[in-house]
Amino acid sequence: MKLADILKDSNYKLSQFAIAEIEQLEQTITLKATKNGDVPYTVCLVRQKAIKLTPEEAIRQLYLRVLSDRLHYPLSRIQVEYGVNFGREVKRADIVVMDKDRPNTVYILVELKKPKLKDGKDQLRSYCNATGAPIAVWTNGDQISYYQRKDPNYFEDIPGLPNANQTLADILQIKFTLEDLIANDKLVKENKSLKTLIEEMEDEVLANAGVDVFEELFKLIFTKLYDEWYSGQGNRRSTRSLEFRNTGQTEAALKTKIQDLFDKAKKKWEGVFSEDAKISLTPSHLSVCVSSLENVKLFNSNLDVIDEAFEYLINQSSKGEKGQFFTPRYVIDLCVKMLNPQEDEYMIDTAAGSSGFPVHTIFHVWRQILDDEGLQASHLFSLEDKPPRCKEYVEEKVFAIDFDEKAVRVARTLNLIAGDGQTNVLHLNTMKSPSKMIGMTFTMRDSNG
């Protein structure tokens, strides 16, 4: 019997596991005849007895293989259905790894029963608080999250689990370059979206942080974009360590480092934040947010990762009160391909929002330029150096206008990053006098070029 058949119609999946791990478990499956048909069983690696292979149990048996075979934890340190006391009630944690030096103390706690992240994290929080476990994992076999429990209120993302011969400090302090980020992109490895991570941060710390959520997350994304951009220039890609990372330093030291990086980003990409803008999150809140974002690769082939996140933040901030509607990105792609804009043509969007149409137009024309010059676009297309014609096209031919100040700042960020220079994004209300606004825009173009 195949595990895919067992997981069918459940919320559990197999994408987090290697083909060899799946095949090894499938080879151990036996079928027991019942009046309702054949029921799959396997012998549990830890309990060493036959157990019914439900969807949840299949994921547990696979994750036991991850812990023992990939991470080399001896089975003698692993327990399943571990009893966690809540007063008179005892609940059962799916998997625990006990501390090497304190065999009665839980070191890693794994939750599988709740196949949705929010439910699973709530369960993890209660189990970790009850046991004192410093490391927690949630997975449904498709998505996965790793956390460090810093105190009962905060769970920080960590890039993965230490193996049996490492400490948590070892994996936090490993040199981490842009190449490493590409290989360990959380959005790929954990099968998540940046929007999902933002929602998780809102639930975890931002809702009660007493700050403007849009502003603070905008600052962090802006800062991380700069860190990736700077590492992608010249020969830094394989040598420079990324700075937007929580490497186990004090929370105060981390805030100083991120603020300094934000100041450099403001200087590089002017006109988005004021010169005196500061990160307002407390060191504790900032530490959680940096840990959540550090393993996310924001730059990709068309900036759609941050595009989606910014659109979500704008909508959350405005709550629809300004009548804003954002065109789905696949619709934008279709429209741009149908219009097929050319390098010698002008493009203006008079209700640009977060600049979806202008940015996708830029990428469409850039690909034409690269083809014309015999160059290939990679998956880091939006990050890499491009011919001067690409920058000239952004500066001279593409214009965007919107009346919402937050949308304009997002649009300027995307255009600055795309063009690495001047951006023609205006904060105006074209409904008042469209012809006048367009005239002003092209007057600006003429004065610049």
UniProtKB/TrEMBL annotation:
Location of the DNA methylase adenine-specific domain? 304-438
Query: A GO molecular function for this record?
Result: DNA binding
- Give every Type I restriction enzyme R protein N-terminal domain span: 55-162
Instruction: Give the highest taxon in the source lineage.
Output: Bacteria
Pfam family example for this protein? HSDR_N_2
Q: What protein does this entry describe? A: Type I restriction enzyme HsdR N-terminal domain-containing protein
Taxonomic lineage of this organism? Answer: Bacteria, Bacillati, Cyanobacteriota, Cyanophyceae, Nostocales
